[in-house]
From TrEMBL:
UniProt record similarity statement: Belongs to the SUA5 family.
Matches recorded under Gene3D superfamilies: DHBP synthase, Threonylcarbamoyl-AMP synthase, C-terminal domain
EC number: 2.7.7.87
Function: Required for the formation of a threonylcarbamoyl group on adenosine at position 37 (t(6)A37) in tRNAs that read codons beginning with adenine.
Name of this chain's protein: Threonylcarbamoyl-AMP synthase
Reactions that this protein is recorded to catalyse: L-threonine + hydrogencarbonate + ATP = L-threonylcarbamoyladenylate + diphosphate + H2O
Highest taxon of the lineage: Bacteria
Alphabetical list of SUPFAM superfamilies matching this protein: YrdC/RibB (SSF55821)
Cellular component per GO, a single term: cytoplasm
Organism of provenance: Planifilum fulgidum
Keywords: ATP-binding, Cytoplasm, Nucleotide-binding, Nucleotidyltransferase, Transferase, tRNA processing
Compartment list: Cytoplasm
Length: 349
């Protein structure tokens, strides 16, 4: 357990970081905090260590892992080329919640890239993650440290809950900051392509590099998503979850009706709302994600709230929705996945 993180340079001397770095070099599995979510790390060049990641998570083998680096110079060993727009994005957003998909050089094991020609790389900004990556000196393959399909872990307890027995070490530095995974952008083509919305917003990307396309597979089911991980049901609580579309008074009224109907039908009902509307609902469990007026707070609390629904044992979950811009775009992407696409539209007045 590491107290409030100082800077990465200082943390490299911390005995827990030293120990964890040694374990990574020896091919062990170490879970660690990043600014987005906790990751489950292993040496990306070790066939055996990488295999254990897939086994521990129950992750399908066709879903590639992100490689994490602590120094920019490590990029040269991993990728064949950094196109100019990729370089712009690196300068603007690294270290930070942005993963770049780039042509690889075959230096990480095939399982990491799931046989693709490309590799996803990111440099996280969390001082504990940076210190660990720098101290270990190895490129670290790290998916989110949850069991496949469950909400990603934003606290060390979540990692323990999902993977406790399957891992060798866990660095606990308290709750993560962003609360959603990194944004994944493919920069191998002429126009950068957004594959997964996350901690860096589409608006921020466009401000930095101009045109950015959005993978059509993200928005509808007509195209398969280009990022293999985006095709799975994900982040899902155990109860049947529905998103309720609408705004203002109409939204609140519709959720109240739906909750009442479900309660009368004998279901245990959970509601995901915001501080602004918290007092307006009654159900078996009502959780505020954050403040609607503070989108970052909603992102930060989303996965914890989804886990809370499981703990409360609710079997029917109603969730408020948000206008899909800024970080709310990423929040809505995760909510849609968690709900397996189930949407109810609140009719206008
Ligand atoms: O914030 C994050 O990115 C966290 C922390 C731990 O860094 N990691 C994370 O990893 O979310 P994971 O494995 O849960 O999600 C990785 C996503 C998946 O959707 C995967 O399909 C995609 O990135 N991905 C990885 N490599 C790719 C590639 N070469 N091409 C396209 N998509 C790729
Ligand atoms: Mg994940």
């Amino acid at each position: 357990r590491i107290g409030q993180p100082a800077d990465a340079e200082e943390l490299r001397k911390h005995p827990a970081i030293r120990e964890a770095a040694r374990m990574l070099r020896e091919g062990k599995l170490v879970a660690f905090p990043t600014e987005t979510v906790y990751g489950l790390g292993a040496d990306a060049r070790s066939e055996e260590a990488v295999s254990r990641i897939f086994a521990a998570k129950g992750r399908p083998g066709d879903n590639p892992l992100i490689v994490h680096i602590g120094h920019l110079c490590q990029l040269r060993d991993l990728v064949a080329e950094l196109p100019p727009k990729g370089e712009l994005l690196v300068r603007r957003f690294w270290p930070g919640p942005l993963t770049l998909v780039l042509p690889h050089r075959g230096t990480v094991v095939r399982k990491v890239t799931a046989g693709l020609e490309t590799v996803g790389v990111r440099m996280p900004s969390h001082p504990v993650a940076l210190a660990l990556l720098q101290e270990s000196g190895v490129p670290v393959a790290a998916p989110s440290a949850n069991r496949s399909g469950r909400p990603s872990p934003t606290e060390a307890d979540h990692v323990w809950e999902d993977l406790g027995e399957a891992i060798d070490g866990l660095l606990d530095a308290g709750p993560t900051g962003v609360g959603l995974e990194s944004t994944v952008v493919d920069v191998t083509g002429s126009v950068p392509l957004l594959l997964r919305p996350g901690g860096v917003t589409l608006e921020e990307l466009r401000e930095a590099v101009g045109e950015v396309r959005v993978d059509p597979g993200l928005e509808g089911d007509d195209h398969p998503p280009r990022s293999p991980g985006m095709k799975y049901r994900h982040y899902a609580p155990e109860g049947e979850m529905w998103l309720v579309e609408g705004s203002g008074e109409t939204l609140v009224r519709r959720i109240r009706e739906l909750a009442e109907d479900a309660r009368r039908a004998g279901r245990r009902v959970g509601i995901l709302t915001t501080e602004e509307n918290l007092s307006r609902y009654r159900a078996d469990r009502v959780v505020a994600l954050g403040r609607r007026s503070d989108p970052e707070s909603v992102a930060r609390n989303l996965y914890r709230a989804l886990r809370e629904m499981d703990r409360a044992g609710v079997d029917y979950i109603l969730a408020e929705t948000f206008p899909a811009e800024g970080i709310f775009r990423s929040v809505m992407n995760r909510l849609h996945k968690a709900a397996g696409g189930r949407v109810i539209r609140a009719e206008g007045p």
